[in-house]
Structures are given as C-alpha cells and as structure tokens.
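Schema walk-through. Below, the input block comes first and the output block second. Nothing else is stored per chain. Lengths vary across the set, and this one has 383 residues.
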Amino acid sequence: MFQLSDNDIHLAVQATNKQQAIALVADALVNTGCVENGYLQGMLEREAQMTTYLGNGIAIPHGSLATRSLVNKTSVQFFQFPQGVDWGEGNIAYIVIGIAADSDAHLALLRQLTRILDNETAAQQLATTQDVRQFQAIIMGETTSSLINAESITLAVETESLLTLTALNVEKLQQQQAINNYFISEVIASPALPLGKGIWLTDATVGNQHNAIALSRAKQAFIHNGKSVQVVLTIAAVDDQINHSLACLLDQQVQETLLTGSIEQILCALTSQPCNESAVENSTILAGQVPAIEMIVTIRHTHGLHYRPAALLVNHIKKYNASIAVQNLDNGGQLISAKSLMKVTALGAQKGHRLRFVATGAQAKQALKEISELIESGLDESP
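--- output ---
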C-alpha cells in the first residue's frame, strides 16, 4: 500500500477553475521534489485531450507520456475543494488527486483507491471533513465506517425462527462493539419490520454505538405472522451516513441479491455503489439472475488500458441498454462494472492481457460485438 503523509493532504482549498486547481496540484508535486518544473504543462495537455473527471466528485489530473521523464518518483497529492471546481460537461470536482508516475505504477495505486473512492458516502466524507487524520484514514481504508463486512453475514442458517436470525445479527454487532446491552434488550422485545420478499429489518432506538449492519439468511424461507421470512438485517445507526444503504434495501435488484447472492455479492450490493447503476447491474450479473453472454478479448493498445483508452472504452459502453461487467483474467481481478471509469482504469490491463466481458440486456450481443471491434482496433493508439 502506498504511504500517505499529512503533507500530501490539502484541505479547504479554493480554485476558480480547473486550470487553477491543476496548477495548485502541480506546484505541490514540484515542492515535494517528486516532479520537475514543466510537469504542469503535461497535466494541462492531458486534460485537453480528455477530461480526467472520474465521477463521485473526483478528478485525477496527471501528466502525459511525454512528461514521464520529469517524474523523479511516483507520488500522489490530495486536494479538497469544498466549494467545488467546475471540471466541464456539468461535472463538479470536490476531490482532486494529482498523480505523478514514471511508469504504470499509478494503475496499482488506482486499484488500491478504487474501493474507497468508488463509494459515494466515502467520497462525500472526503469532500467535507476538516480533519486531516480522518481524511487519511478514509483513503487508507483504516476507518471503522465500513457498514458491513464478511464476518457480519451469516448464510444458510438452519432455522425457522426470526428471533434466531436476529440473535445471530446481534451477536455480530456486539462483537464489533456497534451496540450495547440497551440495544440488545430493545431489539429482542420489538417487532421486526417486513420489507417484502422475505426480508425483515430489526433495530433499536437506544444502545447504538456506531453505524453497522449485520445480516442472517435462513437456508429455507419460513412463515412468521403470516408472512415469509428468509433474510433479517439488524441495523445499528448513530447518524445519517447509513441512510444510503437503508435506501438500497427497497431496491428490487438489491433485494434479490440479499435473498440469493453470495457474501461477496451482498457486500457489493450494500457497500460498493449502493443504489446506482453500476452496483446494481454488476450484482445482477454476478448473481446469475438473468441469462448472460460472454466474450474474451486481448488488449492490443501499446500502453495498455491506461486512462485515455479506458475512458474511450467506458464512454462507448455507456451507450448500450445492457448490464456489462469486465474482468482482467491475467491479474486475478474480480468482475467489476464496465461502466465505471475508475474501476476499469484500476483493472491494470496491460498489452496482451485478456479481458472477460459478461453482458445481459436488450443490447448485450450488439454491445459485446462492438466492444470487441473497438479493442481490436487498438482503442486509439495515440498516447
């Protein structure tokens, strides 16, 4: 994991436009000795070729291939613009990450950052916090704000008792110190809330110590008070940062994932990109809820799938009425949404790597055909 010091984080900065924001980032990279003077010109040239805005209020300006010789060592600088900077095409950047790399090392860095920066809640926290330590902890994945993890999920429970499923969840939350005994007393005594399709919610108004979710799923659905039960979620909540996951519980595709998905798929549905297109479509594909078609293509681009060809590919994919996921078969990566520029860039696909595309939907076949043709053509060989 890359190292991040307090000096690499710049909070509450202001800029009137993206050129000024990029200049501030370039100055910081020069001042650290990571790049030589002149790197700014390469960053501006790269931005003129194609926007470096990723989504979620995040932009990653970086130099062109021609300015790699000005990089002394791979480095990153984080700038927070609470008032936002117009990044063009209606996009506002609140977090600007300046990257300097003399090779493709920045791809590994992007892979490390993807899980955090592709999370809407984390991005909002980064845009508003005035605490350098908290900013650093979010970036480094050291916060305790992860609402649910693999240890909080229990599947295939042999039971026909809603109380048993709730008790399992309470135990998980207690292990995380997310609740205290007051919570336990109230949640056991209070009626559960049915969300439909066999999914129930339990919580308490007292004894919440930090935001967390635990989930238990029975091996077979059963009846409680005349209604089906299979999944019980128990919620500990101390502020509205948990609201994005709660809203997702009403999404039909997320509900299907909770009922049929694996632990990994459930985590994706509740934490990766809740309730937005890329998370839902990816969990749908992974869960095998609809027939999918696949293809494997080999990257031909001389410099691999770096930012510019990745942006071209993603922009092309977004045109189709289809759910499309992609996986790099040569580095052990998982299927990710092919409509997320940050995730596609972080695939780390080099020339010769094989990408597996999985698609479903009305235009799935057409999409894969044209994606194959686009990749075979070299994805625009200009650097």
